[in-house]
Write a sequence for this structure.
């Protein structure tokens, strides 16, 4: 069976290998990297296995691949973590259409950031849903949906994606064969249970300094409609839902790892460090306080909290001052 894979991130590699091993993988399409001139791991794997690889930089370039993809006589396109909206002129080409792999219990958490929203929401179960692609994002009929034994409340976005991709890669050949042979019948989603996600931006990770200090002191209170947050801040939105600063920070540190991270801006009152960004890379909760574990000062390497405090002892005085 002729298959084409659309996927861009490093997380996709187990799925790509499963497709190459079990089907006739005719081509790989990945989003062109704007950060690096070197080949991405997805494209490198394709090239090393003599599989044609394409890296369109926008929707127009993607549509220009239509004739090339059509000449493959594709039976199925498989999409996961690709990065572009695929136009219907492309996803309707294969005989058995296009399936999309989504990392939530659809229709919950539709859109580009299901894993991040799952962690922020505090869900304790991980689901993967495989759907038929339609013109409206993540609304297609469900072919396969399964709970996997990974608890999002103990994972970062990076570790959760990696584990789920690996688990799915073991099931994917059977899912595809079951769908093609008519053993898996697509069923509509229940729209009344739907929710949406959006792409994250750097500002989503901003934690106002006064709230960071409050969380370290354990002196938190409800009501966080702070002008210190950027407009439409996902951090603030989550905070207003939970009503708990400590829990929200712990979840956000994991949800925004590896990107955009949780970070704060040190105020001018701390002369040596004023206006520098401090990334909060790892935290724990003890006695209803946030305990920073690993931090990274702007322009420096990550260090544990003890090392940071030893280097900047006046920072500890700010936290210790309960006034």
């Amino acid at each position: 069976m002729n298959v084409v894979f659309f996927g861009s991130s490093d997380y996709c590699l187990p799925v790509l290998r499963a497709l190459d091993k079990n089907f006739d993988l005719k081509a790989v399409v990945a989003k062109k990297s704007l950060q690096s001139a070197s080949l991405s791991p997805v494209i490198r794997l394709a090239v090393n296995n003599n599989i044609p690889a394409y890296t369109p930089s926008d929707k127009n370039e993607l549509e220009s691949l239509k004739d090339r993809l059509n000449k493959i006589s594709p039976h199925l396109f498989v999409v996961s973590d690709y990065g572009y909206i695929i136009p219907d002129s492309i996803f309707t080409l294969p005989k058995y259409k296009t399936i999309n792999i989504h990392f939530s219990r659809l229709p919950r958490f539709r859109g580009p950031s299901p894993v991040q929203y799952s962690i922020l929401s505090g869900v304790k179960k991980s689901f993967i849903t495989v759907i038929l692609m339609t013109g409206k994002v993540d609304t297609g009929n469900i072919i396969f949906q399964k709970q996997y034994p990974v608890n999002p409340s103990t994972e970062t976005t990076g570790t959760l994606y990696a584990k789920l991709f690996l688990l799915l890669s073991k099931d994917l050949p059977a899912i595809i064969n079951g769908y093609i042979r008519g053993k898996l019948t697509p069923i509509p989603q229940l729209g009344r249970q739907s929710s949406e996600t959006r792409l994250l931006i750097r500002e989503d990770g901003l934690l106002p300094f006064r709230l960071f200090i409050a969380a370290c002191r354990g002196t938190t209170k409800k009501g966080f409609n702070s002008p210190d947050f950027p407009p439409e801040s996902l951090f603030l939105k989550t905070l207003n839902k939970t009503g708990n600063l400590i829990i929200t920070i712990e979840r956000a540190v994991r949800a925004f790892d590896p990107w955009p991270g949780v970070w704060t801006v040190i105020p001018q009152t701390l002369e040596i460090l004023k206006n520098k960004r401090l990334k909060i890379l790892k935290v724990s909760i003890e006695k209803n306080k946030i305990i920073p574990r690993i931090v990274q000062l702007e322009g420096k390497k990550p260090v544990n909290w003890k090392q940071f405090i030893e280097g900047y002892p006046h920072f500890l005085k700010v936290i210790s001052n309960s006034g």
Observations:
- The longest strand covers residues 277-286.
- The chain has a mean pLDDT of 93.
